[in-house]
Amino acid sequence: MFNGASDWKTRFRPNGRLTFLKGFLRHPTTVGSITPSSRFLERRIVASAEIAQAGTVVELGPGTGGTTRAILNALPPTSRLLTLEINPGFVAYLKSLPDPRLRVQLDSAERIGEALAEHGLPRPNAVVSGIPFSTMPAECGRRILRAVWACLAPGGCFVAYQFVKRVAELDPETLGLPEVSMEFLNVPPVHLFRWRKPQAGPQPAAEGRKAGQRPLPADSHP
Ligand SMILES: C[S@@+](CC[C@H](N)C(=O)[O-])C[C@H]1O[C@@H](n2cnc3c(N)ncnc32)[C@H](O)[C@@H]1O
Q1: From the CA of 75, how far away is ligand 1's center (Å)?
Q2: Is residue 83 domain-resident?
């Protein structure tokens, strides 16, 4: 049975793969892949980032939302997911996902600290990233990694899935060495890098937040 506007949106959304392919053809270096992640990779990302136990999750580079839907499927009902995506066409697509836990922002991953503060969200327990670190300038990649590390909750995970290993070489001084695994059932096969922020000890100063903005609460659950 047809149930009004939300059914209309769900049933007649344009094909995500086509939108993704068009995005890649327009911006190959920032999109970084000709096709969205496979179901197998989505499952591995969700398990690796421990989404089922997370109160707040941030996804960097959600694209047309395959990984976003997989995260939402595993996310507890009272948790929140904030996505940061720089492609306006993908953001318009993501905004049609009808889920009250989801906050979609057209923004760069570098602004993760500001975006969390703007949405009134606490430190995330998990940050998941599909942005292609291998095609961006090294300094830009380092800024993103430091911004992620600065806002991640103690004990939280940062999971980056990448075709090449460059992300692991960008800032080992700040993040330390990641656990590495592979998902072969993806075109092409992908590395998963996972860093866990230590529970205790001195935290790095929050970077990239504007003066005057309130700091993120230490309590990582909303
Ligand atoms: C390989 S696609 C991943 C898409 C989707 N998560 C998936 O796995 O199918 C990378 C995405 O990162 C986005 N992106 C690239 N640089 C970014 C940045 N600095 N901040 C936020 N998103 C970015 C691209 O627009 C693209 O949507």
Answers
A1: 20
A2: yes
Distance CA 216, CA 50 (A): 21
Q: Compute, in angstroms, the gap from residue 200 CA to the centroid of ligand 1.
A: 31
CATH at residue 169: 3.40.50.150
User: How many angstroms separate the alpha carbon of residue 206 from the centre of ligand 1?
Assistant: 23
Residue 31 lies in a domain: yes
Domain interval for residue 125? 14-196
The answer to whether 113 and 47 have CB atoms below 8 angstroms apart is no
4 CA to centre of ligand 1 in angstroms? 32
Query: What atom in ligand 1 is closest to the CA of residue 109?
Result: 20
Cβ(84) – ligand 1 distance below 6 Å? yes
In a domain, 106, yes or no: yes
- What is the number of structural domains in the chain? 1
32 lines ligand 1 (CB under 6 A): yes
What is the full per-residue pLDDT of the chain (222 aa) written as tens digits? 333 334 334 444 556 888 888 889 899 988 888 889 999 999 999 999 999 999 999 999 999 999 999 999 999 999 999 999 999 999 999 999 889 999 999 999 999 999 999 999 999 999 999 999 999 999 999 999 999 999 999 999 999 999 999 999 999 999 999 999 999 999 999 999 999 999 965 545 444 343 334 445 444 433
Q: How far is CA 170 from CA 50, 150, 205, in A?
A: 24, 16, 19
